[in-house]
Every structure is written in structure tokens, then in C-alpha cells.
Amino acid sequence: MSYLEIDHVTKFFPATEGGGEVCVFRDVSFKIEQGEFVTMVGHSGCGKSTLLNIIAGLERPSAGGVVLEGREIRRPGMDRMVVFQNFSLMPWMTVFDNVRLAVRAAHPDWHRSRAGSSRTSSSACGRRAGARSSWSRTTSTRRSCCPIASRS
Question: Could you give all domains of the chain from N- to C-terminal order, each with its CATH number?
């Protein structure tokens, strides 16, 4: 059994004019094993964030489903979280501190000693929320018309 399975997920949104629906993506299927690193790349509006919101349980798919650790995702849960790229991050805080802020809001009794060495496990965690990496290397394979997924 895969850690995360995206199973024939399709998402429609209501059309802004004239009624009907607009298909954001159709029949997206892939599996992610625990510990695997996956990147989604695609143009603005192709459905990357929509798929992540479905995985997080913040949105429902129009068709298909998402299974995490053997359980179908139907709503948000404390076992998942989303760190937004902008508007929700405190730009003066590090990535770690932004995540810690969200965890503390959900778990007020949590404290830094439980974080262990995770703060130093990634060089990206010390960067400010608005900082960008000076390099990027991604190998992409098409999974659907969009999003494009790559695995490292």
C-alpha cells in the first residue's frame, strides 16, 4: 500500500460566465511512497494548489479520491498541514518558525524541545520565509496535462 494515493481525481469549478463548469484537471492518478520527494510544476491556474488543497482536505474532488495511509481524505486533519507561499507567512520569521507558529496554534502544549534536531536537518529551514534559493534543479515527468510532477 502506498503512503499517499491520488486516485483518478478530477476537479471542476463553476464557470464565471454563462453557467456550466470548467475542468481544472481530469483523471489525475499517482502514488507517493513514504519518504519520497515529489515536485509539481505547471503554469498558473493549472491546478497545482487545487490538488494540494484536495490532499490537505480543504477541498473535495469532483470525482476520484485521495487516500493517505489507508484512509480516504474527506476533510482537513491534524495529520496534514499547508504552509502557504505568501499572505499567510510572517516574512520576518524563518520557515521553521512559521511552521512552529501553526503547530503551537493547534497544540498549545507543544514546545521546542519536542522538535529535536529538525530545525537543522535542512538548510532551507534557516531561510527567511520570503527568501529564494539561488539554484534549482528539477527533472520533470508529465503525469497529466497539469500538474507536471517530478520525483527526486
Answer: 1-77+138-152 (3.40.50.300), 90-129 (no CATH)
